[in-house]
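Let us practice reading a record.
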Amino acid sequence: MTSWGRIARRIRVPLGFLLAALYLWLARPDWRSLSAGGIICLPGLWLRALASGHVRKNEELTTSGPYARTRNPLYLGSAIIASGFSVAARSWLVAAIFAGVFLAVYLPVIGAEEDYLRSRFPEYAEYAERVPRLLPLGRTGGSLGNHGAFSWALYRGHREYNALLGSAAMLAALAGKLLWLSR
């Protein structure tokens, strides 16, 4: 794992809180952008929920559910959510910041996590050849014998409901800002 990959892994969550504050300051929503952005967030939240109900971190290589279509459904879900929030903000600057953070922080984290999975699970190399890294376009390999079903216990254990609660809170904050600015 590169040193930047290690650093990016550690700073991604605290950076998210800093970005949330900056986001609220820069956002200039209107009711239409807020509605459209919220709708765009929904598939990202669904994908993250589905993925978290399949993954057994550090126990096994998860290749079922959305992991049969993309090796990184949690990050893809986050990117979709960020796209929704960019639309809701009605700000090209916000969209550029989100894209820059994804490229500078999340892509190195994905690489670092892949290095870890490659070292921990010998079957990862075959999985990586069959399933795309992020966008489920082209090759999709299905599961490699891991036919796990969605588990609510895993979903709750990973506390993925926080993505839904955080997104709802941020959309409510945007609505509050919109009401406050329209006075």
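A brief commentary: The two ends are 51 Å apart (CA to CA).
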